[in-house]
Amino acid sequence: MIAASSFKGKRVALFGLGGSGLATAKSLQAGGAEVFAWDDNPDSVARAAAEGIATVDLHGIDWSGIASFILSPGVPLTHPKPHWTVALAKSAGVEIIGDVEIFVRERRLHAPDCPFIAITGTNGKSTTTALIAHILQASGRDTQLGGNIGRAVLTLEPPKAERYFVVECSSYQIDLAPTLNPTAGILLNLTPDHLDRHGTTQHYADVKERLVAGAGTAIVGVDDSYCELIGDRIERSGHKVIRISKRQPLADGLYAEGSRILQADQGAVAPLADLDGIQTLRGSHNAQNAAAAIAACLAVGVSVEDVRLGLKSFPGLKHRMQPVGRRKQVVFVNDSKATNAEAAAPALSSYDRIYWIAGGLPKEGGIASLAPLFPRIVKAYLIGEAASAFAATLGEQVAFEISDTLDRAVAHAAADAARDAEPSAVMLSPACASFDQFKNFEVRGDSFVRLVAGLDGMAMLIDVPEGGK
Fold this sequence. Notes:
alpha/beta, Rossmann fold, UDP-N-acetylmuramoyl-L-alanine:D-glutamate ligase, Protein-Tyrosine Phosphatase, Chain A, 3 domains, 9-stranded mixed sheet, 7-stranded mixed sheet, 15 helices, 22 strands, 23% strand, globular
């Protein structure tokens, strides 16, 4: 755990006592702060109190004596309207920050030169974050991985020289980190998202821009207009910018040409890496992720050879286009993290013959946007509440069955794929939330892996998780 010593002797208010909020409260207390913590959920308050956190209703405290207000990133800061605690803090002139800002201050205080890579973007940030951490770890470096990817940043080991930090940042976390200053900052892409919390796409983009604007090296994807303008703006301000693209050659930067990642320097082009044959980095979207990861690793001193070795051994991000097993010429792919059509598209575009398991709790828009990828689908196996709606969309374009449950879908898809004379993929890429049949997408993905492992003649590519529904 990182003890927040930069807050020693200060009175700090904190709201939000979920996983990251509880970790933040413990970090502040360990660093010597006087913490006043609260949550709108009485159960969360009771749990925090049981773990030794001082809890008090923030309606009744003297805000004039509070040095900082720590807000959970899951709590509205601006839209659709500020949380009631935000209004209290602002009226008292108290700064409003989050756990990533506390980490930034601790790094600045104790080890300002330790390498720190921060990653954001609408899509691909988790894979890119995991890939960077893997390359660093594979090269023998002391690596800490956390942030929005699952482990609260303040639960990591403390900053020190030669310890590398790889932190995924959501827009909510960036909004609460005014002095965010990574060694290398990555902005992969921008499409409209989280508008319920940011109001407009422009405000969402402005928040994302802060991560790269404060970076020593800004790595910016330039395949959308928002990011292209951000890259130009940061460069004009005097910052170092490395542009990346999965779609177009660049005069300067890193770009994909087929499976190859090329580096251009004032028009001179040299190959950096080839993703051909790396199953966990299939598809153009992963070419963008790999280009960003390569640029970041080179920026913090990793050799090209160590980068190439790390790419080849990357096991993939769990539940995201994850090859989990193989039976003869059929690969089984866990893409349970694809909880909407946009998220399912990369996996569907990465294989030519797919036995597709889809469905669950439907999202707005359904799967109509995936129609250009339907020719890749040999047959669909539909589960959960979305099954009938998905069947209507597929119509006569794609053969399908309504399997209802995941176990039936896996058994039937595996049997059909086994009779296919050509190489194919049995893929769980649901384009739906999981909550109709599973607790979350992780449980759904683990269930898929266990079902695959139970098939005769299966060669598993990963460890089989324990547990059940």
